[in-house]
């Protein structure tokens, strides 16, 4: 149990770092972050701050979907939402802002590494099955209720987020945060999480036996 708790605590800053690297790349963020970035710009809020709000809504969505199957321990996701939002604000506005991205190649590097780190962190949290990330928990709840694979449900969420971004851009003059990086993240993030979950599940099983 101690090992699982340590892994859980470590996954949170890694997820925030992964998201911040994708934002730093500046060539389009993942669909969920694109929606958060566009909405934050319209509302005059920091991305992490708005993320605290949207992640809290994800927890409420899980409660509505799972009903009696929602575990009281998962209420800690509200605290996780606050930690994740605060860390994204720190990484994006305080730390990574000191390092300029001077070439497209460097932008691609940040995008690739950011997606990998983010997918691994989300997959680890889901595999541990203690307290999930709010967005990942909502997708997992939809996956359980609909009996579809997590990766497919995540891709469906990404499509919905892109549609909402387009509504904000053309209907409310929001900032267009969709670029090639958004398409890349939408295509690879869900499958990457599936792969990492399989890997972590196998390794955690082996670790439990030793």
What would a concise description of this structure say?
With 210 residues, the protein is an all-alpha fold. Helices cover 80% and strands 0% of the residues.
Description:
80% of the residues lie in helices and 0% in strands. With 210 residues, the protein is an all-alpha fold. The radius of gyration is 17 Å and the shape is globular. The model has no long low-confidence stretch (mean pLDDT 89). The two termini are 14 Å apart.
What is the residue-mean pLDDT, rounded to a whole number?
89
**Low-confidence runs of at least 5 consecutive residues:** none
What overall geometry do the principal axes of the alpha carbons give? globular
Strand content: under 5%
For the CA atoms, what is the radius of gyration?
17 Å
Structural class: mainly alpha
What is the N-to-C order of secondary-structure elements (H for helix, E for strand)? HHHHHHHH
**How much helicity do the residues have?**
over 70%
Kindly report how far apart the N and C termini lie. 14 Å
Please report the total strand number as a whole number.
0
| Major sheet characteristics | none
Number of helix segments?
Answer: 8
């Amino acid at each position: 149990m101690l090992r699982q708790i340590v892994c859980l605590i470590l996954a949170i800053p890694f997820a925030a770092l992964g998201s911040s690297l994708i934002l730093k790349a500046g060539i389009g963020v993942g669909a969920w972050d694109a929606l958060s970035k566009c909405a934050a710009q319209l509302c005059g809020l920091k991305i992490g701050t708005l993320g605290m709000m949207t992640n809290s809504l994800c927890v409420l969505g899980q409660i509505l979907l799972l009903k009696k199957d929602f575990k009281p321990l998962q209420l800690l996701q509200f605290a996780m939402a606050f930690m994740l939002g605060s860390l994204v604000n720190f990484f994006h506005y305080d730390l990574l802002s000191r390092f300029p991205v001077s070439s497209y190649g460097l932008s691609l590097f940040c995008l690739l590494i950011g997606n990998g780190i983010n997918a691994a962190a989300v997959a680890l949290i889901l595999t541990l099955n203690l307290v999930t990330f709010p967005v990942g928990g909502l997708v997992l709840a939809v996956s359980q209720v609909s009996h579809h694979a997590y990766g497919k449900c995540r891709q469906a969420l990404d499509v919905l987020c892109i549609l909402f971004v387009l509504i904000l851009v053309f209907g409310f003059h929001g900032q267009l945060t969709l670029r090639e990086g958004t398409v890349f993240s939408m295509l690879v993030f869900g499958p990457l999480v599936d792969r990492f979950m399989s890997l972590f599940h196998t390794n955690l099983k082996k670790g439990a036996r030793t």
